[in-house]
Structures are given as structure tokens and as C-alpha cells.
Design brief:
32% strand; DUF1922 domain-containing protein; 69 residues; single chain; three-stranded antiparallel beta sheet; binds zinc ion; 1 helix
């Protein structure tokens, strides 16, 4: 099973989706979006994709970032 790290078009957080899925629901804001219309930052094993997601989302912990609602 291959996975893809995709960036939510609404809240800009990354999450892991199955690479063969067409749609994905963001676990942070609940938005459902088409994977082929979203930015894919990594593709690979579950572990590789999880690490890419953590690395990407760690940017949101920097001072000055505020979530959009
Ligand atoms: Zn989202």
C-alpha cells in the first residue's frame, strides 16, 4: 500500500491519504477534497509519508502562525 502526503486546500495542513484514493477528508478541518487537485508533498510508504506530514505541519507551530477558520 502506498500513501501520499497531501496539503489541505482550506487549512493548508498536510495529512496522509491512500495513494489510490481519489478523495480525502482533512482530519483537521473536515474538508473533503480531490487528491489530484491538491498539492502532494510526498508519496511512499506509510512511514515515509507520516514523517513528511509531521515535518510539514511542524511549520505551523512557529510563532506568528494562526489557524484560519
Ligand atoms: Zn484542512
Amino acid at each position: 500500500m502506498r500513501y501520499a502526503a497531501v496539503v489541505c486546500p482550506r487549512c493548508a495542513r498536510a495529512s496522509a491519504a491512500r495513494a489510490d484514493a481519489r478523495r480525502h477528508q482533512c482530519p483537521y478541518c473536515g474538508t473533503v477534497f480531490q487528491i489530484d487537485q491538491a498539492a502532494v508533498i510526498a508519496v511512499g510508504s506509510a512511514r515515509e509519508v507520516r514523517e513528511a506530514v509531521v515535518r510539514y505541519n511542524s511549520n505551523f507551530l512557529k510563532p506568528g502562525w494562526e489557524p484560519r477558520r
